[in-house]
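Hello forum,

I keep getting stuck at the same step: I have a sequence, I want structure tokens, and every attempt I make locally crashes halfway through. Rather than fight my setup again tonight, could one of you with a working pipeline run this one for me? It's a single chain of 1174 residues.
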Amino acid sequence: MTATSTMRPTRDVPMEFPEMAGEPYWPELDARPRRNAGRFASPCAARAVFPFALFLSAIAGPSQMSARIGSADEPNDASRLVAAEGLEVSVWAKSPMFFNPTNIDVDERGRIWVTEAVNYRDFNSANGERLRHALGDRVVILEDTDRDGTADRSSVFVQDKDLVAPLGIAVFGNRVVVSCSPSILVYTDRNRDGRFEEGVDTKERFLTGFGGLDHDHGLHSVAAGPDGRWYFNAGNAGPHIVTDRSGWTLRAGGWYTGGTPHNTTNSPGLKSDDGRIYVGGLTMSMNADGTGLEVHGHNYRNNYETCVDSFGDLFQNDNDDQVVACRTTWLMQYANAGFSSSDGKRGWNADRRPDQSIPIAHWHQDDPGILPMGDLYGAGSPTGMVVYEGDALGDAFRGAVLSCEAGRNVVFAYRAAPRGAGFDLERGMLVSSGRQDDPNYKWNKVEQDERAWFRPSDAAVGIDGAVYVADWFDPIVGGHDMRDKVGAGAIYRITRKGEQHSVPRLDLDTPEGRIAAMRNPAPNVRFLGFERLRKAPDEARRAIADLRRDENPYVRARAIWLLAQLDSAGAVEVQGQLDDADPMHRIVAFRALRRAGADVVGLVRRLARDPSPAVRREAALALRDVGIDAARDLILELIEGYDGRDRWYLEAIGTACEGKEEAIFGSIVERFGATGDASHWSDAFADLVWRLHPTASVPLLRARIAAADVTARRRKQAVDALAFVADGSAAEAMVEAARQGPDDLRADADWWIAFRRTNLWQEYPIAKEYARPADLSTSIVAGVRLPGQAVYSSGTVRAGEMADILVDIAGAQHVFLVVTDAGDGNSCEWADWAEPRLLRGGSESRLTELAWERAEITFGRVRVDRNCEDMPLRIHGRPVPYGIGTHAPSVVVYDVGGQGFEWFAARGGLDNGREDRGGTDYPGAQPSVVFEVYHDGPTPESRARGLEATMLDPASTADARRDAALALAKSRPGGLRLLGLASQGKLSAELSEWVAEPLHRNPDLSVRALASRHFRRSSAEGSPYPAIEELVTMAGDAQRGRTIALGKGQCAACHAFGSEGKPVGPDLTYIAGKLDRTRLIDAILNPSATISFGYETWLVGLDDGQVLTGFVVGEGDPVVLIDAKGETHRLPADSIEFRKRQEVSIMPELARAQLTPNELVDVVEFLGGLSNPK
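Reply #2:
Ran it on my machine without issues. Output:
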């Protein structure tokens, strides 16, 4: 296998997997957020249609930005927006000509058609205060009759109760195609008067069965491709069970539910009529008559729109605005985008491996068979897309992939540069509110907040070459909690500065008009010319000759598609293009011939040794549905061109082998040299084994794992490959690796066994019966072997923070107090257990009055009432009355057996130390530690089980029942059991009264939060909070806010802030880019008002009486739940006694977090100051 690429550009940054241990498998795949600029060698001439330097110079930098604020009442001032250099923005139309635009399209007369979503998620806010259309949502036509660059006429084409927040529109002459789950609706305006009339015009449910009613993860817009087909997409609010007009049925589902009352069930693992399992959101195409439905890509979260250019390349964006993982990517045919597990049963967080970052795990980038993530740009809410193929904006923007970003208040402009078998997407800006690019901008300056109300929902190219951008205009992204009560919106027109572009008049009844339509930059207008010309071959040939002479390469590409579909002579002529010097011309010719029904095997035979990896990629993809006998030699030839570095190419080879992995693997082994010596595999062969992972590869992988002279990362690659083999022999090999090593991979193998025993290897006894080796089943700190799992862990504690510790130790013989180093401490991790005590009944004993059984420390000494260097205990500059001083890592063991102790209580913090010795006062020190408690008594769950039995036993005395109930209310497992009983109506009024107050003081945040749903508090929480309007005006301190968020407020227990905190709930690193100051304060005050999708709280009761709470991230068997501590529970379906969705957030209300108004404002100031990604 040799490298044959001649198109590989240079880079400013190395390509690598940044989050993998050691070196990456594919060094050239960059999984990081993109820079906004880069240097490229010249890619193929046809695709590099504008100079990159010119493109970059057109992207406005900070020094070129200026913005004035328009009124927050309506989007009436384009000067509040910033366009790329050389362009200008004007208001083309605004409310009340239309309301809440979700999607727009342009017809051949230059009119803009708008779908409105005024009735979006009425269940959230149908309170009489918001604009609502009782007769259903509408499709509105806007027109500039005097052609002065501003719309002056608005008319309603249709208002229909079947339209519930439609998300897409496409206009093809008098056929108006509206996407509104569950159906693609086609309205035909027979008399072409621009007004739908029942009895005159027709309405048909063109395709139906899509999930996502009244949900933005539903059905999205249709757009015409250069091949004459209609392309469209849907999000992951399935299931989607859709039969096309030729009888072929698509079935796609997944684990995801929620977002609306309609999306309560989904179905992972469904097979479509082609025998394949499609997962989540997906991109499809069909013929214009509704036949020939095909899937082009799947396993998205919610790609709002897919766009296709005249070369046949598809681009899409996808979002998860709760974590920093939004992406834009080129969509390779048949790709799996990787949001969920490949069977659709689990979300990314259920599959996350111990060493993975969130973005890598989120898009399953370390799994074989997954599309590279493209441009990962962080937080946001991506919406509509279009490729700009016109000339009116200048050469700098021809070919730009435009992607609206409602969360970031910007329309991105990407340059798609061919690289190897894929594309590099270099991100720039077309138009923005200016918030992201002004280095002096402070988001929390109240007078400027309305800039964040620019919420671009879609972009379209007009027949005049201008770009039109629809603005939803709202303080909040989407329908979680819309605050704009009047449905305001705008459409902006973006043109070259100072130029007046006239709107052409297209007469499709003339040959000249049809050719002009084919040249037009508006995609769905081009379709009209294409269809007319395809039906008139003689006229089409003259048009094709004209189009092929055009200077614009996109126009020339359109001619190739048309020529291939005219007749056999046209197809023969297109075959001549397979020898063109430009690889993009070869690719478009190949695609056009495939679509026209040419012999795929013959075409691939011509291109299998093409010098361009992009051309060979297309050849490989075309072999997916070709049988092994015809495909074997061609696949082997294509493998010869794999250089061991290009992930796009590797995935294309994997697609070619789909369903043929076992049949072809022997030929691959024989031809590419893995002849018994696992130490001498080429990188390319190692990647192929990982990507294909057939059962026949198990013996080879076994040998590779054990090969001592193979690098650690390549042996780890072999372990990972083994984990994707659906066979008992792979489970056996993994158990062997866990038990026998090599030592550096045993923990990886052990994790895979624990994970796979509930899914891929569920039916194999070896995985079920596996017992962890003793040295993997317990932790060792400072030389002390600890029993089982920690019953308490503080999370990271830094200077200025304290951990409040309360642990149930009833029945324990020994208690282990553990401190570990959390990093960055410069050997200054002086840690104190402040006021440690043992509780029993109504009395307490100081732990320091007992002698420890064992104390181990790696620096200094463990001391009573003194720190590790024999100085008085001080935390935050205050003396500690009594306690235990240590240095991380350390373990102190106490014998507490036989004395009836029930609880251990303490506070953990970092000792001040001394400037010349260490501790937090040492110059430059940034210590951080984790406090943990272990014991050898009954587990908290088993103790809760016994207390519950006593509480519910009618034979128990009232005092015993009350004591048991109160004890349950003090622990996390006990509190969850009480919540489970209450949710099922099984807790008496007497018991409820006993446990209400202690439940609201439970040490677990989630228990306290959910208690508000079932248990009333008997006393007020203090003085009322000021109104939000008053809080907004209060000044805060960001540094104090950070201390509160990471400490007292306990925000970091569930939320990530950059590298700090835990990513259990939504990531708050870039929340300021999504919510303005007012909405952020409201979200903290009222967390249950707008629960983010995917973070709905469930109570799940098991057959052993245990109750869990958390987020369901995997459906099927097992059900996968992640609790508030971030721990993953894989629950056999038959073990679940009940599951109830909670109406309250797992996040406690502010009063239960015990924050004062000033502390709240400090936290908001801290969140507002976090950096946004570039």
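The first strand starts at residue 82 and ends at 83. If your local run keeps crashing, start a new thread with the error log.
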